[in-house]
Amino acid sequence: MKKIIFAALALLLVPILSYAQDKTGYDISTEKPLKGRTSNSIMSEGSLEFKNSIIGMTLLKGGYFTLGTTGGTAAGSLDNDCQLTFGHPYAMTSYPAFSVDGSWQKFDDLNPSEVTLARTGDTLKVRALKEGIFSVTFSMYFQASDSTMRLGCEVVNLDSVSHSFGLGFILDPALGRWGDAAVYLDGTTLLKESKTFSVQETPSEIMLWEKSTGAKGLSAALSFSSKPDKMIFANWADAFKSVSPDFDNSSPLTLYDCLIKTYWNETQVSPNEKKTADMVISLRKPDFSSATFLRWDIPQFFALNNGLVFPEKLDTYLELNKTGNTSFTNGALQLSLPSEMTSSKTEYSYGASVPGYQNLEVTPRIIYENKIAEVSVKLLDGTNVIDEIHRFVFIPATPVSDSGLIVKIDTLMSSRFPSMALTFEVTREDKGNKITTLAPENIFLYENSSRITDFTFGKDTSGGATSADIVFVLDVTGSMGNEIDAVKNNIIEFADNLSKEGIDYQLGLVTFLDEVENKYPFTKDVQAFQQNIAAQYAHGGGDGPENSLQALLDASRFNFRQNSKRIVVWITDAEYHENDSYTSLKRQTVIDSLLINGIVVNAIGEKIFKSDFYDPIVIPTGGNYYDITGNFRDILLDISRMKSNYKYLISYRSSAQSGTNEVKLQVRFAGLGGQAVINYNTAPKGIAEKRLAFYPNPFNPEITFQVRKGEFVKGKIRIYNVLGQKVREFELTENSMQKLVWNARNDHGGMVGAGFYFAELTLTDKKNVSYSETAKILYLK
């Protein structure tokens, strides 16, 4: 049974990993031909295999070798038939290298007629002969014990003059099943980043383990008769393509798929003399000390396919192996993912027998720069960790255009330098709608060309929305009579509350059953809209799902105004049809349309359908769910209390020097990009030039502001309350008066309450250099 399950898993992994940086193109089997060459042609070119009761080794004519276990050293079966290098029994990611007079190469680079493959006893050999110049031989054999292998390389100078020869080994370790290798140096230090060692720095002991946490599984040690001149520990994708010892490690990367490159520098070799090097790999005692030992087939890297991260959704399998008497009183699996990945479920109850398999779904998010992210799984018995796996996974950046987004920096606040803040908004150039769902990963902030990654990001809540386009998507089936009446009876108060908030609104309506029944375009006349609602009546239904998806898609296609806040109020007491005889629509198609058009969906529905039907649409669009059995008046009034949702605020700490400084904001979203640049001046320490004067302070009810604009040509004075909410804004132009009066009224004409306020002055000159200053004022009654 075990072999059948593994065969099924192997078939699952073939399409997944074949896109992962093309690595499985180097993994050869009768089922998986190499690019451009059939498996039979590869094997006919020459292959050798030798194994004992513990370890097996294979060698191809091109010099490629693999190592793996047969019976292993443990009494149980957990270390049987496992990999020690990637792709065992046949793969092309581990091989010897040699250099001749400065040119590094491998056996596969030579003419096949110059290369021979042979087995002598328990020794596998590949030999290349350049008549009258040199010969190079790579050999593999068991040394001292059945659990120790020696890899040797020898180059002989056959010429009548001296030549420079160098030797090396490229080793792609992959201990266990589906894993990589955790590298420990000098017994205890886990190597977490790519690193290069010189001969003086080479560790005295190099240990390879199957895992870095929990029970560590298989183990092997590397040693050498003579220390190599250079060792490189790097990620396979970064280091494999080059045979030479040249490697740029100026920016070390987290190891997610370790490749070990070992080199002995070129030296002069006289005629008929030779140069040798070796690597000894010793299989050590494995660590299966946990009650249950975990293995996980998650790949080390995702890839790009047609510009998107592939696979879009990955079904991985966790293997739970029994090592002793295992029983759970409260077994649970806990999946931990970084922000760059998501899953529909991260907690699993586990009462199944061991051994067993658990499906873990993992989906990479769209990101705009390459990331190496850590994932982990823990097996718990109550609060006790039985075993765990931690892996690093490479997620590639989704390609993005440099255009398509209009980024506008509204205000740069530098008056509290080095504490900086800026507000901005982003608009899609093709659609004209504001982007309302930006996240920190969409933001790339630079000051004087230096990337700033330590910043706080959120919505700018200082001002209110100025316009809103609201579409009611209403289920009119037979069970919805009370809800139709509730909307009709409360829509006037809903509209009145929008007016009080200073919102320029318009209302639209879509009604549906198993199909969309009516579509009423936007109107600013609330009485007319109320009549549209009054014309609805509850009818039909009684047969389960309704066609919410089509209704929501139709709502997303309404003629929204360019700068409006876009809201859907979705009211239904049923689940919805999806990809069936009533509609060919899938949920993601509708969500994409809503997101592209910047629409927020608020759902009023039955609680039993919240998780499976409403949340998958409400949460991505940034809306809220309301229980349909609640008070409709309160629900609608809550929805009407809207604030601006398309302006953002970034705060960071500057390290700029005095003088003119540049801030560049890049935004990447949905494959589009855009940027804005703004400059500001900082004065040397101790010099604080003030441009804003005001009197009287305290005031009642008027205060006069006087601005010394100097070289600045435009600006604004904004008044904020102590909660950071903007209550009044004044524009300053080159021709406007530099003196203005505030009469304690907000932008809507209402009187503000007594208390402290903040007056912020921002100025911009002809070169787009900005200046800001803030003052505290007190309104007394």
Strand arrangement within the widest β-sheet reads: 7-8-9-10-20-17-16-13-14
The parts where pLDDT drops under 50 for at least 5 residues are 1-20, 30-44
The biggest beta sheet is recorded as: 9 strands, antiparallel
End-to-end span in angstroms? 85 Å
Proportion of residues in β-strands: 35-45%
In terms of quaternary structure, the protein is single chain
What is the β-strand count? 51
Helical residue percent?
A: 10-25%
Mean pLDDT: 85
Shape: globular
- Number of DSSP helices? 9
Instruction: Briefly note the structural class of the backbone.
Output: mainly beta
Rg is 34 Å
Task: Give a description of the structure.
This protein is mostly beta strands. The chain is 12% helix and 44% strand. It contains 9 helices and 51 strands. A 9-stranded antiparallel β-sheet has the order 7-8-9-10-20-17-16-13-14, with no helix packed on it. A hairpin with a 2-residue loop joins strand 7 and strand 8. The longest helix is centred in the middle third of the chain and has 20 residues, at 481-500. The protein is globular, with a radius of gyration of 34 Å. Residues 1-20 and 30-44 have low confidence and may be disordered.
